[in-house]
Amino acid sequence: ITSDTLLSIGQYAFAGCKDLADVTITAPKVKYGPYAFTGCEALTEFYVNAAVLPEGMFYEAENMQKVTVGPDVNDIGEFAFRDTKVDTFVVEKGNKAYKAQSADHILSADGNTLVAVAATLTGEFSAKNLGGAAVTTIGKGAFSHNTELTSVNLPSVTAIGNYGLGSSENIETVTFGALTEIGEYAFYYCHNARTPLALPDSVVKVESNAFAWCYDIPSVTLGANLQTIGDSAFYYCYNLENDLVLPNTLRSIGSNAFAWCKKLSSLRTGESLTNIGAKAFENCHELTSAEFG
Questions:
Q1: Is the dihedral of CA 71, 68, 163, 77 positive or negative?
Q2: What angle do CA 110, 112, 116 make, to 5 degrees?
Q3: Which candidate, 261, 256, 258, places its Cα nearest to that of 240?
Q4: Cβ atoms within 10 Å, residue 199
């Protein structure tokens, strides 16, 4: 494909075109739809200079190795580079939204948000990878489905966006600062995480599916100021086996929040709880006692 007249490429426009290997777009402004090149297995590099690099644009373009972000890009969607082999990010001069201090990640221009991480990274990801940058936020889908990392050590981080580490299935340990925000699907299917989970008092809400399918977490301690546990937040964490003590500040437990946590033995809630959602404790087979208020 070569064009200098294109204005837009719609969602899924070239999805599954496995042999498409060469795309050259010289038109100055092109709008891309979500998942425009998903499954284009022959693509190895791409230059993007649209305002939005949309959700899933290169999802499952499994041989993609290099992406160059032009000066006009100001929004990168989640899953944009998921299930690729991208090991080189280039952010061109003049881009006011992003920067790349090294080829294996993209940061926001102010250095506060980790936007994307190369899918080929292995072992531990730490502040050393960022040249010492003290990021405070893991952006939406930044580590999504990185299957080679085993630990993330970023003690300056206080917020994790939606799908931040979702499906990073081999991560065993994480170290963050005093978290204030845990987004939807933040740790979804991180099923090799085997250390006890302790949420700090600064967390007031655990979003939906945040820890769903983290089935090797042995125990969870909830912070003293937690107010809301979202739908399916701990769904199928079936090795949770501690006595679950919910803080006095907790007001709501969402649907399926602890469903299939088969080893939970007891439950104790505080006086502020006003809502327990549908199937919140469904199939908690070993739950023998529940004390409310």
A1: positive
A2: 100
A3: 261
A4: 19
pLDDT in tens, 178-210: 899 999 999 999 989 888 999 999 999 999 999
Three-state secondary structure call for residue 267: strand
Residue 106 confidence (pLDDT) above 90 = yes
Helix (H, G, I), strand (E, B) or coil at 153: strand
| β-strands 149-154, 123-126 pairing | parallel
Query: Which contiguous run of DSSP H or E holds residue 46?
Result: strand 45-48
pTM of this structure: 0.92
Q: Select from 219, 204, 198 the least CA-distant residue to 249.
A: 204
**How many Å apart are CA 92 and CA 69, to the nearest integer?**
6
- Do the Cβ atoms of 70 and 92 come closer than 8 Å? yes
Q: Are 279 and 255 in contact (CB under 8 A)?
A: yes
Q: Name, in order, each residue with C-beta under 8 angstroms of 65's C-beta and a sequence gap of 6 or more.
A: 44, 45, 84, 85, 86, 87, 88
- For the CA atoms of 270, 272, 278, 281, the dihedral, rounded to the nearest 10 degrees, stands at -10
With tokens 């022959």, the residue in question is 42
Burial grade of 274 (CB within 10 A; 0-12, 13-18, 19 or more) = exposed
**Length of the chain in residues, anyone?**
293
Other C-beta atoms within 10 Å of 4: how many? 9
Distance of CA 157 to the CA centre of its chain: 14
Q: Tell me what the mean pLDDT of segment 154-179 comes to.
A: 92
Which amino acid would we find at residue 278? A
Contact 204, 181 (CB under 8 A): no
CB-based contact 226:203 (threshold 8 Å) = yes
